[in-house]
């Protein structure tokens, strides 16, 4: 389900400085890959939003994250796969904030899970080494389900020389 093609890039001039240019997708993609923390937004069964911080990895054109099967985000995604992942610096006048909209798809293929597990170790270190078994990650704390979010749309919000870029996949 990963996205390998280049998206259409558009600058939204309504929310950009007069001389701003669109942020390139390679720069946006690099920001997604390098970020340490992300915010995941899901929808509760009653329609209220649920937002939580987590770690994730960018691999093969998608973001991957994991969560316990009994956690609120897993329960929400079981009912409604629509979600948003956001990351950024949290600074007012500098940096690039990024938002990815898409559907979370459970990853059960053990070859892909092993690749994602290795990406976690490469990015976050040995503390985040998972064993792959029975279509899930396993560690001292128990089982973790893995989800892939291939972008349907993504946004880049550059601060300083303000620009708002939309990428459509």
Structure description:
The protein is of the alpha+beta class. It has a single domain, classed as Roll (Pnp Oxidase, Chain A). The protein contains three helices and twelve strands. It has helices spanning 25-34, 72-79, 110-124, and strands at residues 8-11, 38-43, 49-54, 57-59, 62-67, 82-87, 96-107, 131-133, 136-139, 142-149, 153-158, 163-168. Strands 1, 2, 3, 4, 5, 6, 7, 8, 9, 10, 11 and 12 form a twelve-stranded antiparallel beta sheet that branches. A hairpin with a 5-residue loop joins strand 2 (38-43) and strand 3 (49-54). The radius of gyration is 16 Å and the shape is globular.
Descriptive labels:
alpha+beta, globular, Pnp Oxidase, Chain A, twelve-stranded antiparallel β-sheet, 3 helices
Protein structure class: alpha+beta
The CATH class label is Mainly Beta
Order of helices and strands: EHEEEEHEEHEEEEE
Rg (CA only): 16 Å
- CATH topological fold name: Pnp Oxidase, Chain A
Helix content: 10-25%
Beta-strand residue percentage: 35-45%
- Biggest sheet, open or closed, and with what strands and sense? 12 strands, antiparallel
């Amino acid at each position: 389900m990963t996205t390998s093609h280049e998206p259409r890039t558009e600058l939204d001039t309504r929310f950009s400085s007069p001389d701003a240019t669109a942020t390139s997708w390679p720069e946006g993609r690099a920001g997604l890959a390098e970020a340490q923390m992300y915010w995941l937004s899901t929808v509760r069964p009653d329609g209220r939003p649920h937002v939580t911080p987590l770690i994730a990895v960018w691999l093969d054109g998608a973001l991957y994250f994991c969560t316990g099967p009994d956690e609120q985000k897993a329960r929400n995604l079981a009912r409604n796969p629509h979600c948003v992942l956001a990351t950024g610096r949290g600074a007012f006048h500098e940096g690039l904030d990024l938002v990815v909209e898409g559907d979370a798809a459970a990853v059960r293929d053990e070859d892909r899970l092993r690749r994602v597990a290795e990406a976690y170790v490469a990015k976050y270190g040995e503390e985040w080494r998972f064993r792959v078994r029975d279509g899930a990650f396993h560690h001292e704390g128990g089982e973790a389900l893995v989800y892939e979010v291939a972008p349907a749309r993504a946004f880049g919000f550059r601060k300083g020389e303000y620009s708002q870029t939309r990428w459509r996949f």
